Structures are given as C-alpha cells and as structure tokens.
Amino acid sequence: MSVISKSRFSDQRVRQLAQAYAANRPLVQRGLTVGFVFYVLTAAYRGIFARPSPRRRDEGKDAARKDGKSARVAVDAVFYQRLSIILRIVIPSLRSKEALLLFMHSSLLVFRTAISLYVAALDGKIVASLVRGQSLQFLLNIIRWLLVAIPATWTNSWLSYVQNKLALAYRTRLTKEVLKQYLGDEADGPDGKVYYKISNLDDRIKNPDQMITHDIQRFSTHLAAIYANLAKPVLDVILYNYQLSQNVGAEGLVLLTVLVQTSAALLRALTPSFGTYTAQSAALAGSLRHTHSRLSEFAEEIAFFGGEETEKRLIEQEYAALVQHEEGVMNKKWWYGCAEEGIVKWLWGSFGLVVCAIPVFFKLPGLSNFDLGSRTEGFVTNRRLLLSSSDAIGRVMYSYKDLAELAGYTSRVSLLLDTMSDMKKGRFEKALVSGATEGENGRILRSRGQVLLSDDIQFDNVPIVTPNGDILLKSLTFNVKPGEHLLIVGPNGAGKSSLFRILGGLWPVYGGIVRKPHASDFMLIPQRPYLSLGTLRDQVIYPHSQQDMGARGVTDADLVAVLERVQMESIVEREGGWDVTREWRDALSGGDKQKIAWARLFYHRPKYAILDEATSLVPPDMEGTMMEQATALGITLLTVSHRPSLWKYHSTILQLDGQGGYIFMKLDAEKRLALQEEKQDLEAKLLEM
Known about the structure:
It is a single chain. This protein has 2 domains: 28-424, ABC transporter transmembrane region fold (Up-down Bundle); 441-531 and 588-688, 3-Layer(aba) Sandwich (Rossmann fold), CATH 3.40.50. Helices cover 66% and strands 9% of the residues. It has 24 helices and 12 strands. It has a 6-stranded mixed sheet, sandwiched between helices. A 4-stranded mixed sheet has the order 1-5-2-3. The protein has a two-stranded antiparallel sheet with strand order 7-8. Helix 5 runs antiparallel to helix 14. 31% of the residues are buried. The model is unreliable at 50-70 and 186-190 (pLDDT under 50). GO terms for molecular function: ABC-type transporter activity; ATP binding; ATP hydrolysis activity; long-chain fatty acid transmembrane transporter activity. It comes from Rhizopogon vinicolor AM-OR11-026. Pfam families: ABC_membrane_2 (PF06472), ABC_tran (PF00005).
C-alpha cells in the first residue's frame, strides 16, 4: 500500500507541476526568450572577441617576422587596438560621409530582415492556401509575393551598392592619410622624406608600394563587409528565433540552442588561424612583386651581364614559396569547409526539422486549430524561419574567419602607419654591422646631434654614419660660405654621398652641430638625373607644375633661354614641342639628361647645388660653361668629381681618405694641377723602369 500511495502522490505531483507550468507558460516563455537574446549577444561578443591560443599567437609572430615586425596576427586585444586607431582615420566624425553611409547600411540591413520575416510568413500562407484549395486566397498571396519583390530587390541592390561605396570611402580616406604622411612636404628636420627613409633607413617594410595599393584596398573591402557579416547575422538570429519561439515554443528554441552551441564549439576548435595565413599571403605576394620590380629597374645591367637565368631562378623561388603557402591554405580550407558544411547545413538542418515537428506531434498550450492547412502553414513558415536562422548562425560562425582575415590586413596597414610614425620621430630599425652597438661606436649611434638653420654650411664635430651603423668619419668639421665652391674628393665609400644626404635632411645627425640652409635651398644633380613622367616642360621645371611656373612669371620663352644656357634649345623643336609626353629616361641620351638637369638648376636657382659627377657625360667645354653660369647666378657648388678640369672652379677642397681621416683646406688649382702633372710624369717613368 505504501508503494502505491507514493506512486499516486508522484503522479499527482507531476500533474500539479504540469498544470502550474501550463498556467504560467506565457511568463516562462518570455523569460526563456529574454534569456535567449541575452545568451546570443553574450556568445557573439565572446566569439568575436575571443583570445587566440598560444599556438596561434606564435604563428602570428612568425607571419609578422616575414615582414620584419614581431607582432601577433590574431583576433585579440592587439587587433582591436590597431583597428580602433584606423577607424578614427576612416570615420573621422559622426557627421562624415562615411558615418552617413554606415547609417544607411544599417537601416537597409534592418529593413531586409523585416522583409525576410514577412516573406517567411507569406511562404507558409501560400502553401496553406494551396493545400486547402483556396484559389482566391492563393492568388492574393501570389500578388503579395510579387509586390514584396519590389522593395526586396531594391534593398538588396542598394545594400551591395552602399557597401561598395563604403569600401571605396574607407580606401580613399585611408589612402589620403597614408600619402599625406608618406609624401608629406616636411623637409625641415626629421619629420619629412618618409618615402625615402622607409626604404633606406629601415628594414621593417620591403614593399611599401604593395601595402599602399593592394593591402589598403583589401583592408577597406573587408572592413566594409565585416559590419554586415557581424551585425546582420546577430540581428537575424534574434529576430528569426524570436518569431520561431512564438510558433513552436521557447522550449524547442532552448533545445535547439544547446545542440547548435555544442556543435559550434567543435567547429570553432577546428578553425585554422586564417588571420596568420592572410598576413603571410600578403607578405609573400609583396616579396614576389618586389623581385619583379627589381628586374624592371635594373633591366639594362641584367641584360649586359646576361643574368636572365639567375633572375628567373630568384623569381621562381619567390613564386614557389607563394604557391606552397597558398596550396597549404587551400588544403586547410578544404577540410575545414567539409566540417563547416556538414555541421552548419546538415547537422543543424536535422536539429531544425525536429524543432519544426514539435507542434505537429505535441499539443502545446496556447497553440490550437491544427488542421492540415494550419499544420502545413506552420511547418513551412517555421522551416523558412529555421533555414534563415541557421544561415544567420552560420554567418556568425563564419564571421570569426572574416575577422581573422581582417586582422591580417589590419596588421599590414598598422605596420605601415606605425613605421611611418617612427620615421617622422627619427626611430629606425635596421640591421647593423658587426660591432656597431659596442664601445665608442655604440655611444655615437645612441646620441643625436643638432641641426640649425644658417646661410652658411658648417659641420662641427659631426660623425658620418650610414643607416646600417657603419661609421665612416667619427668627427667632421668644415665650413662653407655662400660663393665658396667646395670640391669633395675621395675613394668610394669614404662618405661623400653620405655627406650630401645629411645636407638634404635624408639621414639623421648622430652628433655635433650642423648649420645649414633649409633643405629646399639645395638641389641635387646626380650622375644619372631623375626624369619624371610628363611633358618636356615638366622635365625642366620639376617638381613645379605649369601653374607654379606661371605663378613665378616664367614663360615658355624663358625656358627656351634656360635651355640655351646648356645648348639644348633645339630639343623643343626636335621632340615636337613643350607639351609632348614621352618616357624621357629612354628618349634622351646620358649627356642630354645631364644637360636637362643643369637646365632645371638654372630654372630654380637654389642657394646651393650638389653635383655628384654631374658633368661626367658632357664635353669639357660645356662643363666649364655650365660651371661659370651657375656661379654667375649666385649658386654655390658642392661638387664630387675626379676630373682635374673642374678644380679651377672651386675655392676649397674636402679630401676624404676612406680610412676615417680627412683634409679641409683652400684649393690652389694651379699648384694642384702642377703637382698632378708631376705625379703623372713620375708614374710614367716608373712604368718605363
């Protein structure tokens, strides 16, 4: 009797609990729904802001070292810190065009979700009217279907358009900021010439052109897409599942959530480090592009040496490394895609079918009138909602992969911005020669000198140091006043070009005091002058534009007079006028290039001209004429040349011995020429003996 009594009591207790649950089910449903929304938001936050495993952090460091910067590439706090800095560039304010486009994008995403909910319900009504044989209702539902297609197609097209506009706006804003720093006109002091310093004084970036053109474009595209890939799926999961809970009950929703999250944890554990792979791919692609650009830049030298096979081998090595990496990534994406589709599409689909069947096999409180048409309508609607919800959950899962790829491009863009910032602050990271950080050499490299503005050029105990830490002269002192032409001689590697780079503000000063005019008061004429893209006029007035030339009151007739100074006035007629455009570095001979460079000097008339073997390809009589005309225009010459014919045009000489020593003194050209002739006679007699 006691066992039977206990059994009856248990059955009665269960019935009471079931009745209490049925009576309070609406409140329980609301609690479960609110809990589900909170859980989805929390899970999405944790998934997006998940910290990487130690293994992935190490992989990120390896990927970054490929381009010279030791930093992890993963979806972690470092990534979000970098991204926040870049976001302040691409979205400068809430009133900016980018913020407006982002608001439009968000509104369209919400509107598209609302349309999807309506279409899901309409789909069920169409099938239900078909099952019930209600022809008029079926026709009305078809008309509604066609009408809703108008805003649906409009919304989808606008979403794609606005997202592309947003990507282009991001790229434009970021490119302008990068070019502002990269090519900024800040020649006074250590803040300018970033484009030069990043390639010559630092080892972190080997291919800034690839970063500016390709990586910024890929970053902008991913950034514009990531918002839709994150916000829209989370919103869809909440709305679709809320509507689903109203149809099948929140109990089924909770069961579905448990099953989905369990399988999602498995899928996340299998997710490779896509951020690291993206950064590695970008670095390898940039290295391959850099190797190809060297082939174009030094094509003449390679052709003379017959180095085709060597260059082919180098390019094939770079390409093989890229292909090997991409094949490895493809293999990982293949098996990950299999696991992803199996779990997201098929396993979650079976879970969904079970949930959709709950109202058919179980009578739930509050759900009645389940005839065949109602069951069909409910199943089709729930099935449509479930597919949309499953797709949204899948996209939330995919978003981590998208974020990882965005992290890869973010690390590349951040590396570019950080390196340019360091260049402006005079912070360089370059491989140094052996012993550069030890003893006196280390003390010199750790110190900094002063650069003061002055009409004269004065070096006071200034060391001449190359970017890799090689100290050419520990202390250099000399003084040049306006009008005192300086001749600089010495063997290769003695520091002649290094001295000019300090004068031009290209290299830092590691000690002493440098007094010199502003960098804009100097003009360089190298042995192989630079000729820009543009017209013949542009070659003479570079870097001025035609508008700048007009603002100075200079006409084409004045430019002809400038060309007459270098005996090249016939080139205007020969080439077809001032406005003709050619690849001038190929169209002109070496001597003509040097004459154009001298014409450019006479056009600008700077205070000082740096001549680095600038007359090596012109006749001696033309050489003397150009020197005399530069003097007549008040241009002080700083000349590197081994041609004795130039000695008479200079008043001082700085002679470097290549061993860390130097002599600075007045230049007596006649005496020096006599000594030179005597030296040559003695050498000739020694040869005879």
